[in-house]
Amino acid sequence: MSYTLEPVHFSGCIQPHGILLVLSYPELTILQVSANVWAYLGKESQMLLGQSLHTLLDIQSVASIQQNLEEGDSLSSLKLRTLSGDRTFDGTVHRIKQGMILELEPAAQTEESFFLVHAWVKGAIAKLRKVSSLREFLQLAAQDIRKLTDFDRVMVYQFDPQGAGAVIAEAKRDDLSPYLGLHYPATDIPQPVRELYKRGLLRFIPNLTAPAVELLPSVNPITQQPLDLSPVTLRGVDPCCVTYHQNMGVASILVISLVHNQQLWGLIACHHQTPKLIAYPVREACELLGQFVSVELANKGDREELDYIVKLRSLQSEFVGSISQVDDLKEALVNPALRLLDLVSAQGAAVCLENKITLVGVTPTLEQVRTLIQWADTQPGNEALFHTNLLPKLYPEAETFQNQASGLLLLRISQVRRYYILWFRPEVVQTVNWAGNPHAAMRMEADGSVTLSPRTSFIQWQETVRATSLPWKACELENALDLRSAIVGIVLNKADELARMNQELKRSNQELDSFAYAASHDLKEPLRGIHNFSTLLLKGYESVLDDVGKARLQTLIRLTRRMESLIDALLKFSRLGQAELYLVPTDINQLVNRVLEDLLVSRQEVQPEICIPRSLPTVNCDPILVLEVFTNLLSNAFKYNDKPFQSIEIGYLDTEGSIPDSSYITFYIKDNGIGIRERHLEIIFRLFKRLHEQNLYGGGTGAGLTIAKKIIERHGGQIWVESTVGLGSIFYFSLKS
Ligand code: ADP
């Protein structure tokens, strides 16, 4: 059995539980009648055609129809009486282009039923108002409608954006198997039928197999066209719908449309296994309740959405609060892992900071994530955010990991620094249960037209909607974007803090320098006093003092000398922090020659071999201070060498890879001396730090390298050393060219 999509509402037939008249307007002459008028009015159809409505209904009934038409209120129902007064009907009037349609159904027997139904609607609405969750609300609506109508089964379907439906609430006879949770493919309700549902709020078919009733004549005599029955509640049933429901064991249906934002949001579908006539007022009550549910959908749905948004927001602020406290951003993002995932309801995430990627939850592999980021960066769109719930369709490589990532939300925190957060959602195929194979419902005919074949099986069937994840909601995307601003803010704050700390450090260093300067200056005075008095004592009391006394005084004099040289070193060091630099282009060849001359002259022992492989460059520096650096380093190279053959090399490296950058020239002084243990390589630059006893290797204060370091750093360069014990050392330092 099949039917084409075209004639759903042009079948020209109605159901037999009422009659239909087509009239001209404003004359109200009967143009067409349904073939079953005899059964309801006791008149032959031929007798009615061409007659005025006044010959059929009493004067009041005709008047109320006219009033209804003038007011354009085509949906309201009317109580109508025949001219003889022996029959009453519930009537519905529709204004059409060239006249009007009048539908008549025998009226309910008692007035009482109206009040009962009215009370039911009031009660149901009062109950429904109290429920806040959308699911509970729809469940209660299904139960109430079942209570009123006594249908075997009442279901609420919700449609997804593609038009597929899911049963999200159900009230049913205990002995029937549940349909709750089943999904229906979009093709179960073809688009033209959906349109009809959207326009008419209620569809009632008391007996799906009742023989259809034709209109006489079949073509409207004015328009010469078949009648468009789309607004008509008595509209005939198409054969596909009959078969479809027969397959489900259903003989009678009542369907209430749920329309939200002018879209068909879902349906309340009532099924009965045997034919079932529902009184007109009861149907009206159902329709009313359907309208109430439609209106409330916005409230309840919005509230659920709002609850979710509030939950996401609070997760977000908690998250941001905790990451702003810590120094290690990556750790803070991924610990605990669930928190990062909950932020956008994802199952997996990857945090990528520069080249380091950390995975949490269900994710593709590291390599897959790496290439995915490269691909995403080539995609057009928002520079901060890329998202899709159909990743494998856009990026075929993702087919291999669609179980982990059919949905991707990629957040670019900083493009300069390549900071990304990626969230993943798996494909949803596991969660979909179609109530039958949807692909069996549509068939392409040889002539290219689409034919619907009702499915013959309602066995639960797993549809493979491959490579699609749940879509990302607007509030989730917003949450991700807000996280980005928070992280950017935190990182910027940290940079500010660092700059502030640097300034503070500079200030306290300056204070320390001026303190050291003042202290060492003040110390020199009493020290000189001690030295002078000790010398006087030794000279003036030489005869009185014994040898021990004399030796002690000599030690005292030696110590004051040493102390003086230490204080001098400290003075020099602290002055360095305060003095201005006088930068001038300085030829380092000349400078080194001066240093070597001085050093070699004062040296009587072994003369080392000095090698300068290539002419040294000119740099922009304070020549007096840089002379001090070369003096310190070269005198150390002379001093700390116990080899019979001593060699010293003075040179510079090529600028490539220079520290801190290539605008600096790195000089080196290499010796074949005693070398320095690795653990001492840093501490030798500390003030007064010597590695040997005072009298070894020509003595010293342990301040030379500290002063050299300070000079280089004041020039913006760096100093460091490489060394092998027993083989020698290379001191490097960089100066801006
Ligand atoms: P001083 O030479 O006055 O002791 P420095 O600050 O110049 O002070 O050097 C600190 C220490 O570093 C020295 O005591 C020495 O142990 C070690 N040192 C410096 N230069 C060299 C070198 N070229 N070879 C081996 N050790 C060195």
Topology readout:
Blueprint: E1 3-4, E2 13-14, E3 19-23, E4 30-34, H1 37-41, H2 45-48, H3 59-71, E5 77-81, E6 88-96, E7 99-106, H4 112-130, H5 134-149, E8 153-159, E9 165-172, E10 183-184, H6 191-199, E11 202-205, E12 213-216, H7 239-247, E13 252-260, E14 263-272, H8 280-323, H9 329-334, H10 337-342, E15 348-353, E16 356-361, H11 366-377, E17 385-388, H12 391-394, E18 407-414, E19 419-425, E20 442-444, E21 450-452, H13 474-540, H14 547-578, E22 584-587, H15 588-601, E23 609-611, E24 618-621, H16 623-639, E25 647-652, E26 664-671, H17 704-714, E27 719-724, E28 728-736
Parallel strand pairs: 23-25
Antiparallel strand pairs: 1-21, 2-12, 3-4, 3-7, 4-12, 5-6, 6-7, 8-9, 8-14, 9-10, 11-13, 13-14, 15-16, 15-19, 17-18, 18-19, 20-21, 22-24, 25-26, 26-28, 27-28
Helix pairs in contact: 4-5, 4-8, 5-8, 8-13, 13-14, 14-17, 15-16, 16-17
Bound molecules: adenosine-5'-diphosphate.
CATH class of the domain at 110-210 and 232-301, named: Alpha Beta
Helix content: 25-40%
Secondary structure class reads alpha+beta
CATH topology of the domain at 110-210 and 232-301: Beta-Lactamase
Task: Explain what this protein looks like in three dimensions.
This protein has 737 residues and is α+β, with helices and mostly antiparallel strands. Among the domains are: 10-106, 2-Layer Sandwich (Beta-Lactamase); 110-210 and 232-301, 2-Layer Sandwich (Beta-Lactamase), CATH 3.30.450.40; 502-576; 584-736, Histidine kinase-like ATPase, C-terminal domain (Heat Shock Protein 90, 2-Layer Sandwich). Helix content is 39%, strand content 21%. It contains 17 helices and 28 strands. The strands form 6 sheets. It has a 7-stranded antiparallel β-sheet, covered by helices on one side. A 6-stranded antiparallel β-sheet has the order 10-9-8-14-13-11. α5 runs antiparallel to α8, α13 (474-540) runs antiparallel to α14 (547-578) and α16 packs antiparallel against α17 (704-714). The protein is rod-shaped and about 160 Å long. The two termini are 91 Å apart. Residues 1-8 and 457-464 have low confidence and may be disordered. The structure holds adenosine-5'-diphosphate. The site of adenosine-5'-diphosphate has 21 residues, from α16 and α17.
